[in-house]
Each structure stands twice: as structure tokens, then as C-alpha cells.
Design a protein that fits this description.
This protein is an alpha+beta fold. It contains three helices and 13 strands, in the order H-E-H-E-E-E-E-E-E-E-E-E-E-E-E-H. It is 22% helix and 34% strand. The relative contact order is 0.24.
């Protein structure tokens, strides 16, 4: 058997016994906060919400008077998996009553305490473990489980600003290629051997 034939058969064997894992991807729906934050949940504590979605995809928190506005999204995470989370955070002004907290499930990613001074305007990155319940769909197609990414804040007279939000990892709903069981792959091996045998016979006749 020539070298090309050997590699061909090895490739068939490997392809028959492996599963292609789902690759890491952006889990957020509408990470750029377009359409005024569509696909995100916005909760506010009084009748005067002070969260503004700008056209550049940033969210500005300005709630005051003890009220906290929250922007959140439930993500289709897999229990125990690690996820890479990043976002930009900045402030345009603050006072002693200002507050901001970013959370991934029950894990606090970042919390702004005005008593410690203004935070640096920078990109923040974290790697955290998902909540203990893998996301799934109920009978109505609504997602249950998963992990909530949330941003909650209030600020006066300035604003707290977040943008460039990203959560990367494997989705609980990511398709995976199923492995080809060996018995089912045997016909492929047989067909390959027959084809290679025919090729060898034709070469022998040409050489004669």
C-alpha cells in the first residue's frame, strides 16, 4: 500500500472516532446595546429611570435618590465552565452616594466604592465560573438556569458608563458534531479498500 493510501485510511479512522467540540463564542445577545438595549432586561427602583443607552453602544447610569437601576441578561452557560467577561467602565462624576456593581451570577466582578476614589477609566477583564445550573429550555422554549450578567448603578451629578461588553465561552445550546461509531464506519473502510485495490490494478496494467 502506498503512502497516500495509508494516510487516507488513517484519516478515515480518525474521523470515525472523534467528536468536534463546540468552539467558544460570544454568549451575549445584542452586546452592542442597539435598539435601546433590546434583548436586555432593565429594572429600575422608582418611576424615573436614569439609565440611558447611547448610540455608540454604551449604557449610562445616573439614578439618584437611593434608587439603583439594573441592566441584565441571562446567559446560556454550562455549569462549572469558565467564561471570559470584559467591559469598559468609566465615570463622569460622582459623590458619596454613588454606587456601581457588576456581577456574573453570584460573583461580584467589580464594585465601585466612592470612598476609595474614582476608578480608572479602563477595560476590565475577568474569568469566572458559571452558575451551578446549566441552561436549558422549558416546554414553552423559555430559557431556565444559566448565569445572569448584571450591571447595577446610581450616580449624581455625574454618570457611570459601561460599554464594549463581552462574554465568551461555550454555550449550552452550541451544536456539536456527533462521533461516528466504528461499526457504522466499517462500510466506508470497505469502500475505500475496494477503491484502492482498483487503483492498484490499473497501475499494474499500465506498467505491464
Amino acid at each position: 500500500m502506498n503512502t497516500v493510501a495509508k494516510f487516507f485510511l488513517v484519516g478515515l479512522l480518525v474521523g470515525a472516532s472523534t467528536t468536534a467540540p463546540a468552539s467558544a463564542a460570544q454568549l451575549l445577545v445584542n452586546p452592542g446595546l442597539t435598539a435601546n438595549g433590546a434583548d436586555w432586561t432593565f429594572d429600575y427602583s422608582n418611576n424615573s429611570p436614569k439609565l440611558v443607552i447611547k448610540t455608540d453602544g454604551t449604557a449610562w447610569f445616573g439614578a439618584e435618590g437611593g434608587a439603583v437601576d439594573t441592566l441584565s441578561q441571562v446567559l446560556p452557560t454550562i455549569a462549572g465552565n469558565k467564561y471570559d467577561i470584559s467591559f469598559n467602565f468609566s465615570v463622569t462624576g460622582y459623590n458619596s452616594n454613588s454606587a456601581f456593581t457588576a456581577k456574573f451570577g453570584d460573583t461580584v466582578l467589580y464594585s465601585f466604592d466612592p470612598k476609595t476614589g474614582a476608578p480608572a477609566n479602563s477595560n476590565m477583564s475577568f474569568t469566572e465560573t458559571a452558575s451551578p445550573t446549566t441552561a436549558s429550555l422549558d416546554a414553552q422554549g423559555k430559557m431556565i438556569g444559566g448565569t445572569v450578567l448584571s450591571f447595577a448603578g446610581m450616580d449624581n451629578p455625574g454618570w457611570e458608563v459601561i460599554g464594549n461588553i463581552s462574554v465568551n465561552g461555550t454555550s449550552a445550546f452550541a451544536p456539536q458534531l456527533a462521533a461516528v461509531p466504528l461499526p457504522g464506519a466499517l462500510p466506508m473502510f470497505g469502500a475505500a479498500l475496494v477503491g484502492l485495490g482498483g487503483l492498484a490494478r490499473r497501475r499494474a496494467k499500465q506498467a505491464a
